[in-house]
Design the sequence.
C-alpha cells in the first residue's frame, strides 16, 4: 500500500485497564503490520482471492468486500483481473479504514471501479453480486446476527456466485483447541510480540471477537441455503471457506 504504516505497539506498555478493541485511527495507522504479524496465512488467503475470482466470477459482475478494512482484498482482485472484469464495493464500519482504502485504490488501481462506503453490513440493501468476501469480519458480529446476514448474502449472490469466508476459529475438542492457541501464541512471539502484548490484546478482544467452530460455520452456510461449502485453507486456528450458490 502506498500509505505509510507503522509497527503495531498498541499493547506494548502495561495498561491499568484494557479497553475493548476497536478499529480506530490508532489501529488504522498500524493495521498492515498488525494483521501481518497476527493472522497466520493472511497473505496466502489474499493471494488466492484473485485466482478464485478468475475461476468463478462472471465477467463484469459486482464484488462485495464486507469489512474491507484498508482494501487488501480489493487490491488482490485488481492485481489479478482487468478493470472491466468486476465492480468492487467495499464496506467498513470504520470511517478511518474506509478513507484509507479509498486513498489506496486511487493510488494503486485508478483504472478499476472501486467504491468504498462506510456502513453496517447488517443494514445494507445488497444488489446482485457474483462474489462476496467476508475476510475476518463475521467474527466481530454478535453470534445472533450471523445467520440473518448470511441469509441475505445468499439471496444477493447470483447463481454460480461464491462466498469467501475467512475467520479465526475455535476447535470443538478442548485439547486440540488448547494446542492451536498455544502454537498461535508461539507464532505471535516469533513475530515480535511480547507475552504482555499477547495477553493485553487477548483481553481487549474478549467478547468483541467471538469465534465459531468450522463445523458451526458450515452448518450455518447450509442453513441459509448453500448446498456446498468447503474449507480450502487452514493455518492453526485461522481458516478460509468457500460456499457455492448453485447455478
Sequence:
Amino acid at each position: 500500500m502506498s500509505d505509510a504504516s507503522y509497527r503495531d505497539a498498541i499493547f506494548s506498555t502495561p495498561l491499568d485497564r484494557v479497553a475493548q478493541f476497536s478499529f480506530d485511527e490508532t489501529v488504522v495507522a498500524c493495521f498492515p503490520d498488525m494483521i501481518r504479524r497476527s493472522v497466520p496465512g493472511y497473505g496466502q488467503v489474499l493471494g488466492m482471492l484473485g485466482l478464485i475470482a478468475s475461476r468463478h466470477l462472471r465477467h463484469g459482475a459486482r464484488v462485495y468486500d464486507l469489512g474491507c478494512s484498508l482494501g487488501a482484498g480489493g487490491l488482490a482482485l485488481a492485481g489479478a483481473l482487468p478493470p472491466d472484469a468486476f465492480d468492487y464495493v467495499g464496506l467498513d464500519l470504520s470511517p478511518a479504514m474506509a478513507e484509507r482504502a479509498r486513498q489506496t485504490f486511487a493510488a494503486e488501481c485508478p483504472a478499476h471501479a472501486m467504491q468504498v462506503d462506510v456502513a453496517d453490513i447488517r443494514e445494507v440493501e445488497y444488489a446482485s453480486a457474483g462474489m462476496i468476501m467476508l475476510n475476518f469480519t463475521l467474527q466481530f458480529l454478535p453470534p445472533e446476527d450471523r445467520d440473518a446476514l448470511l441469509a441475505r448474502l445468499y439471496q444477493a449472490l447470483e447463481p454460480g456466485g461464491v462466498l469467501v469466508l475467512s475467520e479465526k476459529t475455535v476447535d470443538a475438542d478442548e485439547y486440540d483447541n488448547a494446542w492451536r492457541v498455544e502454537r498461535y501464541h508461539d507464532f505471535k512471539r516469533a513475530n515480535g510480540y511480547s507475552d504482555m502484548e499477547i495477553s493485553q490484546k487477548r483481553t481487549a478482544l474478549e467478547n468483541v471477537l467471538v469465534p465459531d467452530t468450522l463445523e458451526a460455520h458450515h452448518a450455518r452456510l447450509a442453513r441459509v441455503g448453500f448446498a456446498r461449502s468447503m474449507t480450502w485453507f487452514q493455518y492453526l486456528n485461522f481458516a478460509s471457506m468457500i460456499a457455492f450458490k448453485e447455478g
The chain is about 40% helix and 20% strand. The longest strand covers residues 157-168.
